[in-house]
Amino acid sequence: GSAVAFAPAATRASSSGLNAFSAADLPGALPPVGFFDPLGFAEKADEKTLKRYREAEVTHGRVAMLAVIGFLVGEAVEGSSFLFDAQISGPAITHFTQVPDGWDALIVTFIGAAEAQRAQIGWVDPADASYDQPGLLRDNYYPGDIGFDPLGLKPEDPEELNIMITKELQNGRLAMLAAAGFLAQEAVDGKGILEHFSS
């Protein structure tokens, strides 16, 4: 099915022209806090801007979840990995600079290809957008729904989908805090995260 068929009720309403993508209808709010927006960005945003905010939050959450796993796994296999002759060592924030020449270009190319694919799926082509409305998401695109579901985990029921979206958002939010904490800790003392548990 299409992204709209599986999207939460708020998004389906927008495709039919009703007031749709509003902060009150977005999944991701849990008691006791509810919808957390202390600076009031959501109440000042129109529907298109709110969709971009949610796209950014989902994307940053996914990157942060991968970063947290990368910190922990990268430091856990240090010295025992078959990659790069097990030469990469130290805190995870220094690992990228230790990658042999040429590999960094391959990594950047892979990331660029993934981002280009995401942009083609969700974003309006800049040539088709007005100069005063840059960075628009497609009307039928739900933020974060790039169609990648190789294990078929995406529920068809809208309520179950809202629950899954909320879980992903909450895990992404936690990962953003954890990744920021990992970065700060390693920058302060130059020790790997796992080293803190062994000393």
Tell me the number of structural domains: 1
Share of β-strand residues: under 5%
Query: Oligomerization state of this entry?
Result: single chain
* Number of DSSP-assigned strands: 0
* Name of the CATH architecture: Orthogonal Bundle
Distance between the termini: 52 Å
- Taking all Cα atoms into account, the compactness measure Rg is 20 Å
* Structural class assignment: mainly alpha
CATH class category name: Mainly Alpha
Question: If you consult CATH, what is the topology?
Answer: Chlorophyll a-b binding protein
Q: Assign an overall shape.
A: globular
Low-confidence stretches: 1-19
Q: State the fourth-level CATH superfamily.
A: Chlorophyll a/b binding protein domain
Number of helical stretches of at least 4 residues: 8
Share in helix: 40-55%
Defining key terms:
199 residues, mainly alpha, Chlorophyll a-b binding protein, 8 helices, disordered N terminus, photosynthesis, chromophore
What does this structure look like?
By secondary structure, the chain is mostly helical. It has eight helices and no strands. The N and C termini lie far apart (52 Å). The model is unreliable at 1-19 (pLDDT under 50). Chlorophyll b 1 binds at residue 62. One of its GO terms (biological process) is photosynthesis, light harvesting. GO terms for molecular function: chlorophyll binding.
Topology:
Elements: H1 3-6, H2 9-15, H3 41-44, H4 47-76, H5 95-98, H6 103-122, H7 158-189, H8 193-198
Short description:
Chlorophyll b 2 binds at residue 185. With 199 residues, this protein is mostly helical. It has helices at residues 3-6, 9-15, 41-44, 47-76, 95-98, 103-122, 158-189, 193-198.
